Every structure is written in structure tokens, then in C-alpha cells.
Amino acid sequence: xDKVKVAILGGSGYTAVELxxxxxxxxxxxxxxxxxxxxxxxxxxxxxxxxxxDLRCEPFDPDALKSKGTQVVFGCLPHGTSMESIxxxxxxGMRVIDLxxxxxxxxxxxxxxxxxETHHDQKNLAQAVYGLPEVYGDKIVGAKLVANPGxxxxxxxxxxAPLVANKLIELTGIVIDSKSGVSGGGRTPKLSxxxxxCNESVxxxxxxxxxxxxxxxxxLSDVAGAPVSVIFTPHLMPMxxxxxxxIYATLTRAVTxxxxxxxxxxxxxxxxxxxxxxxxxxTKDTTGTNFLDVCVKVxxxxxxxxxxxxxxxxxxxxxxxxxxxxxxxFDERTGLM
Length: 337
Ligand SMILES: NC(=O)C1=CN([C@@H]2O[C@H](COP(=O)(O)OP(=O)(O)OC[C@H]3O[C@@H](n4cnc5c(N)ncnc54)[C@H](OP(=O)(O)O)[C@@H]3O)[C@@H](O)[C@H]2O)C=CC1
Ligand SMILES: CC(=O)N[C@@H](CCC(=O)OP(=O)(O)O)C(=O)O
Known about the structure:
Blueprint: E1 4-9, H1 14-24, E2 29-35, H2 42-45, H3 62-67, E3 72-75, H4 82-91, E4 95-98, H5 108-115, H6 122-125, E5 129-130, H7 133-140, E6 145-147, H8 151-165, E7 174-180, H9 195-198, E8 203-204, H10 212-224, E9 230-236, E10 243-250, H11 257-267, E11 274-277, E12 292-299, E13 302-309, H12 313-328
Parallel strand pairs: 1-2, 1-3, 3-4, 4-6, 5-6, 7-9, 11-12
Antiparallel strand pairs: 7-10, 8-9, 10-13, 12-13
Helix pairs in contact: 1-12, 7-12, 8-10
This protein binds NADPH dihydro-nicotinamide-adenine-dinucleotide phosphate and ligand 2.
The site of ligand 2 has 10 residues, from strand 9.
EC number: 1.2.1.38
Subcellular location: Cytoplasm
Family: Belongs to the NAGSA dehydrogenase family. Type 1 subfamily.
């Protein structure tokens, strides 16, 4: 089988370099182009790629990408920028897996409310598939535009899916307390991520306003078949990478921890990247992998879910490759195990 020809947008960023490393190991993918506003060799932008990929970054030009035979483009751009770049790629018949948030929320009004930006590509929003394979797996097969999920939402959605699918918790007032490493904010410099600002310190941010709230609610409402509402609070942790979420919900009936562990094991039995554990996971257990580790506990009548992942792999580039595998008919695990 010929390799699928791949292009990547936003070459200098963190998700791009993770994606490049994963795709270099993928037997069915060939990177034919990387775009960047910087006309540099990719190994000058990311020295870890020295000797592994001999490619100079190029300016974004949809016709040039098409002329190289590109079949799929991974967008590793900030939200807002992504929706400007993607329409001409789709028009030229290339598929897109977008790592930004621009195509995740089905309701454009919800996007504009939470992102405080006008959505410029409602046409393609209508055909986008939310790329969380464990929930929307069949819809991703052959999709033209995949909206890769956010990093935090994956821990919350997968952590809660078995409970909401089985109506075991109240669907309002679910509390999601999440912590992220600093790479979650990308490579582009921001003051709050400057080493002396965030090292040896922990803080919450975007309290009550974080844009992942509606994304979590949209997916969990799909799983529940009824509206779900959550209180989501992210925290910045002085570590390079990793996300840890502690989730609290109220049980609708008495159930033992052993029954819940069994439920989680059976719900994720055919989902190779979700590992159900009986002890609390640690971010380090998942570093550099596409695994999302989850543990469920019952404490004083409440259910607690503890979930950990690597924000750059499972939270972004790894799940993007998982989606690539689904779109092009590879085994879901290809290049990721
Ligand atoms: N970091 C994470 O953990 C996660 C990130 N995401 C999402 O993935 C996307 C990429 O994130 P990440 O790699 O971390 O971000 P980075 O800031 O590390 O990289 C984004 C890249 O996009 C390019 N870029 C930035 N601004 C513009 C602009 N105005 N116009 C054109 N290109 C621009 C730059 O590349 P160049 O200079 O080469 O042009 C930049 O390096 C974002 O949408 C992010 O929200 C999703 C899940 C997790
Ligand atoms: C630590 C940190 O700043 N994290 C980022 C998460 C970014 C991300 O993955 O989200 P999108 O793809 O939805 O932008 C944030 O909270 O904005």
C-alpha cells in the first residue's frame, strides 16, 4: 500500500514536533511538507529532529501542498488562524485533521460566546467530525475534516463516559478540577508561562470561563443523550507536560467501587488507549504515550474519577494520529504503541 502523503501546518510549535516524531515512526505516512512563517530547516526549529527529517519549512500555499500530492493536512495552528487556512485545503480535495478548537463546537453561537471571536467557516463546521475516537469512532472513518479534541476535555469526557452512559451520576454540577503542564499553552511566549512566573507555584486560571467547558458538555451530552453541565477549573502546574484531572460527581443510586471498576473495564475493553486502573494514575505513567489512564473511586457517596494523560501526545498529536489511522483505514494503534 502506498504511504499517505502528509503535510503539517505550524511547524515550529510543540504539537507539530510531537506529530513529526510520531509520523516518522508510522509505516503508512510520509511527510511531504511542513509550513511555517519561518523559512528554516525543520531541524533548526527543532534540534531533536536533526538527522531524522531533511525538510525545509515553506510558506503556507494550498496549491503548493496540492502539487506535492498531499492527501491530508494536520493543522497545528492556534484557533482563529486555523479556520482561515483550512477552507482552501478542503476545496482542493485534501483531508484535514485540525488540532485547534475551531471545528470542535457544533453550535457557532457557543463558539463565539466562549472564544470571543467570529467564526469564519460555518460551511465546513457543518461537516466536521469531533475526533475523540473512543466516542465518535465510526464517524471518523473516511472523514474529510476531523476536529481533534482539546487536551483537558479528553480526561473529563473519557473519565465520565461510563458513568453518564449508564445514568449513574447526576448530570448537573459535575466538578472537574484539572492540572496541566506548561507546554499545554504552546511554544509561543506568554508572560504567565515564563519560568520565574510559574516555577514553584500553582494557580487556577480562566475560572468559570475556560473554553473547554462547552466542549466537555457537548460530548458528554451526546454520550448521556441529555444535557450535561460541568464546573471546570484548570490549573497551571510547574512541569513540562502532563494533565491530571480529579472529577467529583453525585451517584444516582448506591453502587460499589468494585462494580464501577468492572463497568469501566467493560466500557473500555475494546479501547486500546484507555487504561483502567485501581490506583491513582500519575502524569509520568503516561508521558510520551497515547494512553489515558483512569481510576474510579467511591468516597462518602460521591464518585471520584482520576484521569491522567500526556497533553502533547494523547492530548493532541497522538490522538491526531489515532484519527489519521481511522480516516485512512489503518489499525487504530499503528505508530502509537
Ligand atoms: N499544547 C498542547 O498541549 C495542545 C495544543 N492544542 C492546540 O493545537 C494547536 C497548536 O498548539 P501548539 O503546538 O501547542 O502551539 P504552539 O504555539 O507551540 O505552535 C503553534 C504554531 O502555529 C504557528 N502560528 C502561531 N501564530 C500564528 C499565526 N497568527 N498565523 C499563522 N501561524 C501561526 C506558529 O508556527 P510557525 O512559527 O512555524 O509559523 C506556532 O509555532 C493550538 O490550536 C492548540 O490550542 C491542542 C491540544 C493540546
Ligand atoms: C496550560 C494551558 O494554557 N493550556 C491551554 C490548553 C490549550 C489546549 O489544548 O486547548 P485548545 O486546543 O482548545 O486551545 C489553555 O488552557 O488554554
